[in-house]
Amino acid sequence: MRRVHVRWIAASAAFALLLFAASVSAQQLIIKGEFGNMGGVMPPPGLYAGMFGAPTWADELVGPDKKAISGPTLNMYPFGPLVQYVSKFCLFGANYGALVAVPFTNTEISFPRLDVDDSSSIALSQLWVVPVMLGWHIKDPLPLAPGGADMTFHYAFYAPTGRYNVVLTDTGRSPAPNNTSLGMWTNELSFRLTSYFDKDRKFHGSASLFYDFNSKKKDLDWTTGNPFTYMWGLGYSYGAKDSLFSGWLGAAGYAQWQVTSTKGIDAPLIARQNKTQINGVGPEFTTLQGALTIRYFWQFGGKFTTRGQGLYVQFAMPLPI
Prior knowledge:
Shape: globular
Distance between the termini: 74 Å
């Protein structure tokens, strides 16, 4: 009995540490699935305002050996307003734009085997600012794209706003479990492309690439490894352009790989020894002339991360200025 009891304690501690490390690694600041169909399209010049929500429900823990454990859950509920400005000013043949999103979030963690059930209150997360966004609109036919293409490049940063504290535990210093910020700056580069497969631009495909550079966490010797994220969409546009209920529908997905190692003495050893990866796929539906977008994802594969389902909803409209 003693040997069984000790083994259960050791296994439970390992699961708890793995859950903690995977939960932190899953909280890369980029929202997976925020771009899909029409990901490379910058809207016409104007000022736009809207809201987004990106809840995820993870009920599996995927270990470094890619084996999944059911039971622990990590639910996250980010949402917030966003404002985008697109100028008539052109640079390198592209329209200049900028965007600001102000996300709020809360998390719920549950691990019945270890009697863990905790949640954080809603608070400001990390501000997403895109000070440089360039959008090209190519109307001439291209190889594999008779209807032309749209391309967008952006530089963005995530500022460490929001609730962030460091606590002292038996194993050292670590971020507080109720944090809504990761306490680090992140710089981001992105290139996004939408190709139109017919002259009427009804059939289209999109590919969006992101690389994030994470800085060291505040008050900790802990630098989370940088992620490379790929988001895609494949769909069909329906309805007349002047119809209120026109839009598109299709499939969307993403894949994210941590490409550099997590470093720092305060980072858990298991996080320093392993890199995360995860994939997602699901349907996308957009209506109201592109103003309302809904994507739903099922996560699959993965390594050293949480896995479950996710939803991305965005509503944005031009302001009369």
